[in-house]
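User: New here, please read:
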Amino acid sequence: MATHLPVATSTASPAAADQLSVRPFFENKARAFWILQAVGWSGYLVQRSVVGVSNGFSLEKIIPVIIEAILGYCITLLLSTLYGYYRRLPRIAGVFLTLATLAAATFLYAALNAFSFSFITTTQPGVTVSLLIGNLFITFEVLAGWSALYFAINYYLIVEHQIDEMRALEHQASSAQLAMLRYQLNPHFLFNTLNSISTLVLLKQTERANAMLSRLSAFLRYTLANEPTAHVTVAQEVETLKLYLEIEKMRFEDRLRPSFEIDPRAERARLPSLLLQPLVENAIKYAVTPQEEGADIRVDVRLVGQRVRIAVSDTGPGLHEVRHSSSVSTGVGLSNIRERLAQAYGPDHRFESRSAPAGGFSVEIEIPFQLENVNREAA
């Protein structure tokens, strides 16, 4: 049978692609109702007609069936309107009115069927008790089945609508968390860079301070133009990282020795923007700064099967020495990256950090190889 569908439209979420194929059919609920109503009662008419003419074709057998289907179609249209109103009432009142309406509709349908049958088959039309009782069972079966299907489809659509709303809220919460983590990096990096510029000014190295300010402006213009939840290509991330290292080179000169090894096949892979900058900043703080000779910092990106493996390593004193260092950490770097990876990929990622016995610290990240625009491409 058919159903009068809820007025509220569902909000599609990104995960809605894995839903059952019935979802597009119910996008236009009015159209879905009329299609189900027409198909349901047409099927009922065909079934009853086949049963009626199984022992021989005659108008006396076909006409009552046609009238019965037309009456059922009209009565269920009325039921759909009443049921739609009852669903907005308190539950107990709605259930009581639904059962009472179903009983009244069953009696009315049986009486009309009995009258139409007697009008065609007898010379004195009328509704007899035997005809009425004979029709009550089948009319109750038909209308009860139609009503059950009506409420089942509406319940399904309400549940799907609530699931879509939950997914939309979860997506918004995840986006907000990513934005918070991403915005957390800007003041953290800005504080360190401005501190370096202040040092250059105190040393009266104004030309270098101006050059650093100019590069800082270019870096911030690039990063702030991006969406906080945007995914960028590896090539874009490396270019941003090089821009950052140009700023730090003004401070550390030859003590900072960066190198890059980027697999050309991985350059188009996407990852959260500014994911690597905190790793390099961490290496500068704990490997370059405390050593008079500075340190080498290596960034390696490789494509391994369908995974992108990123490694950032340095030749600093290592994790053991860092733990006993008097340097004060803001707690932003590595924990920020872990949370951003968890938000972006869930369990489908790997994050490992290790310190070599001979010195040096490395962080290795493994993420899925993705080419599609996961959120919104960086400007």
User: Anything to note?
Assistant: Residues 230 and 254 are 34 Å apart (CA to CA).
